[in-house]
Protein: Steroid delta-isomerase
Organism: Bacteriovorax stolpii
Amino acid sequence: MTKERMIELAQGQLDAYNQRDIEKFVTFYHPKVQVFRLAQNEKTCDNIETFKEMYKKRFEENPALHCELRSRVVLNDSVLDEEWVTGGGPTPSHVVAIYGFTDNLISHVWFAR
């Protein structure tokens, strides 16, 4: 996969996230997407249906949800986004999202806070 395609996927899902457009958001993800919280060593999702429901609920419950990209590092097979998330709780969240790719889609996401 090209670095341009990886950037396109990372940015496309971020734009859809900020629009809280669940249908568009999930188009950037692999059907077997896996999501992990690194600090807790916890898998929170392992398929697109669970992923979609998880984010649909988050979008519905947080109408002011917004993610600001602070920096992006593009490696050979991963994209690391440093993000500042507001509107999802009483205080902003400083997060790093690491995206992995399979079949020209985002297949893995690892979150670190």
Notes: The domain at 3-112 is CATH 3.10.450.50 (Nuclear Transport Factor 2; Chain: A,). The mean pLDDT is 97.
